[in-house]
Structures
1.
Amino acid sequence: MPALALEPIPPRTLVRPAPRIAPGPALDLPVVSFFGRSLAEYVQFFALDLPALKGRDVLDVAAGPSSFTAEACARKIDAVAADPLYGDDATALAARVESDYARMIAQMRAKRRLFRLKSFPSIAAAETDRRAAAQRFLADYQARMFNGRYVGGALPRLPFFDGTFDLVLCAHLLFIYAAQFDFDWHVAACRELVRVSAGEVRIHPLCGPDGKPYPGLARLRRELRERGIASEVRAVDYEFFAGANAMLVLRRAAP
Ligand SMILES: C[S@@+](CC[C@H](N)C(=O)[O-])C[C@H]1O[C@@H](n2cnc3c(N)ncnc32)[C@H](O)[C@@H]1O
């Protein structure tokens, strides 16, 4: 059989098409993005005291490609990261970073009015920082994915014993993706975060993709209180996405 004659692909068809941006005054988040931030951003939006965390067990839930755990471990904090995508190989996660970053950064540029830029001088500076965070995560993940630092797990059921961690963090999943996760899921997720913590749980941000406060927050706090969980809303000295300037702190209520 004669060999197939392959036409060379014209260079234009190799160019990645620009992501489609849905119009509207909110971020378009049809699926949970694999998008992550650095330890420096975590310090700001979780008001972390890094020296006080040295030698402590800290869990980052929904950690994605954040470099928090890699950077925290380098500072002698015993950090562990959990995410449903952990377990996939580093090449697959790098491909996911590539596509999800393109989509999120296109929105950051197209929906500039949704960003306050308190914590970065420009959208470009935020992009550079977050891409660097993902690269640091990918290198650490490739080196340490089998040593227990990166654990596959999804809320509302985490693969850890009760009270394992001194501090549990969860950023950019609850509330901001409220269209994907209903109210009952949020209650169950908060209870699970408290279950694996021996101290505090910190959740950020408290707004939805439109920058408005999560409408179910007061009801959620009441339901948690009835289940023995105390909550507090604390302002933080951080705002990049408009409205993302507070965290929810949870702990077991005193009996
Ligand atoms: C936007 S990223 C946040 C990354 C990081 N926490 C940060 O703030 O930079 C959201 C992450 O949540 C993860 N995720 C999706 N569903 C989840 C679930 N049910 N439980 C825990 N994580 C989940 C995704 O895989 C993704 O990595």
2.
Amino acid sequence: MEKLDLYYDRVDGNIYHEGLASEIPDRISQPLLQRRVESIIGRRGLKASYNTGKSYMKPLLNTLHQKNKKESLDLMLKHLSIRGFGSLKCTELKKDYMKIQVNNCFNALPQPKSDKKVCFEMAGILAACGEVLMGEGMDCMETECITQGNPYCEFHVFKHGLRIKEKKDAEIKPIPEKEENLVKHNAFHDPYKGETIFEDNSSLILPQGYLAHYQRELESLLGERPVRDMEYILTKKSSLTTANTIKNKKLAGYLHTPTNLLLREMVKKSRMRGFGVPLIQEFYPGKPYLRLIVKNSFNAHGYSKARKPVCYRMAAQCAGFGTALFNKDMDCIETRCRATGDSCCEFRVYANPHRRTQSGRSHKRSIQEMANLTSL
Ligand SMILES: [Zn+2]
Ligand SMILES: [Zn+2]
């Protein structure tokens, strides 16, 4: 295991890895979302994963460019491994072609065995590597996948012959000068597995704005409303699972009350992972209501003039924690958002009068409703 340094900025809530603002989701959450998006809208949802990997990792990979091609590539592959994407190796490098083997590919992990290749986000990232390396338009295709029983995933990166289009919203925020505001956190990298452990979880270190960019890619495919509903329902479910796990730890002898513990953990988790700084504004014990503001919400990065609030995943996280907190089905609405020009985002968590509990059946039904909605 190698030690990695992460720095948390107490003033603006950014978390920095190697001098660049980052967000650190669980290793499994992004591929899990990809799988669920695919189950709802079909294979076309995979385009959002590919495009995000390609356009959002490219500015970062550009900073690693060296004169020597081989050195450049080695540096990029090592860097991707440190970020937790897997253990990567180049097995063939030509003028306008390369072959990359990925052991323990993050993209394949939560997938059941299938007859399809699933690593579209990784393919996008490797296409970006190819473009930085060759200086021309490249694409990437997965040819073997762990999900098909292969010991590793294999990718072919090749020239597509079109002009390169650069996306303007993918920018890298470098570390600020004021060191006195920075708090150091540790993460640990396993170079053999290509995994990074942060806060006891295998995690991905993504450039800040990556997850919001994925949301915009989905929006460009499906429109705002279906994406809002989909991200909200899916994230609420996983956030509720996380919150319930924390709550059960209480039974193992924690001193705080479950309510305090959950609120503290929600705030801590969000800050540590670079998702934003939540501040509780209204909370009365016994009343199922919570109002909070979130500074620097990860969900709003890169949006400049949105007409409506865009932090669906942040709202869903609050709803999931709220549900565990109050022991009843809670929902969350975002009432102010940085994406629409406010200084921070504001969320209100309230008891949903129409649903008593979020049972498995009602969840299945909402997924079905969404499938109908998105098949327009
Ligand atoms: Zn794969
Ligand atoms: Zn917002």
